[in-house]
Amino acid sequence: MSQGIDYFNRGHWLTAMQEKVSVATRKRMFQIAVRELELTAGQKMVDFGATPDVERRDSNCMIPWFYALGMRVALASPEDITHLASVFSFARILPATGFHHPIAAGVREFDLVTSSAVLEHCGDRAHQIAHIKECGRVADKIFLTTPHRWHWLEFHTKLPLMHWLPKPMHRGGLKIAGLAFWATEENLNLLSVRQLKELAKEALRNEFAYQIQKVWTLGMPSNLLLLAYRLSR
Length: 233
What we know:
Elements: H1 15-36, E1 44-48, H2 62-68, E2 72-76, H3 84-87, E3 92-93, E4 110-116, H4 125-138, E5 139-147, E6 153-154, E7 159-160, H5 167-176, H6 193-204, E8 208-217, E9 220-230
Parallel strand pairs: 1-2, 1-4, 2-3, 4-5
Antiparallel strand pairs: 5-9, 6-7, 8-9
């Protein structure tokens, strides 16, 4: 069975360590979302961008945590995730969709939409805004995570510091290093706090109150969290 796009370079020698660190980091992000968004049993949520991967420990690791909280879970992805029905028997699998195309769901159908490590793969600024807008269309609360561009390690390529270069230089270096897949904006577009704020402001406008939090890993802020809730419910 295909595991979809290899977003985190499975064969790399650092993968096992990364999985362990990633699960712990995602647990902290999940706990922040539960607290800040007041998530409770009985609420409906959809994970926008669930991965078809079933090998890595951190793949879709938050999904059973939401279920254990008592939430009603649905999954949506631009990739084929029909096989996840046997992995998460409690989840409703929605038809495939693009990262920035409409989810097969109605307006405000869910209490919560989650988008974990998806935004950086949506492409350019316009497509990233469209992704956040779609999150706001289907739910009253948003929990979105994305890597912090200014962490010293880039978790997809597992190369340190190179991503601090201006983007054209970074992408040129990736091509030289044989990592051309990550050298395109369509596949990897890392964000800073300022950039994520600008995207959220443009996408959510005055309909949502939102905040951005940082989560630290390996000595620096590694992940950015966009936590939002609709002002008129």
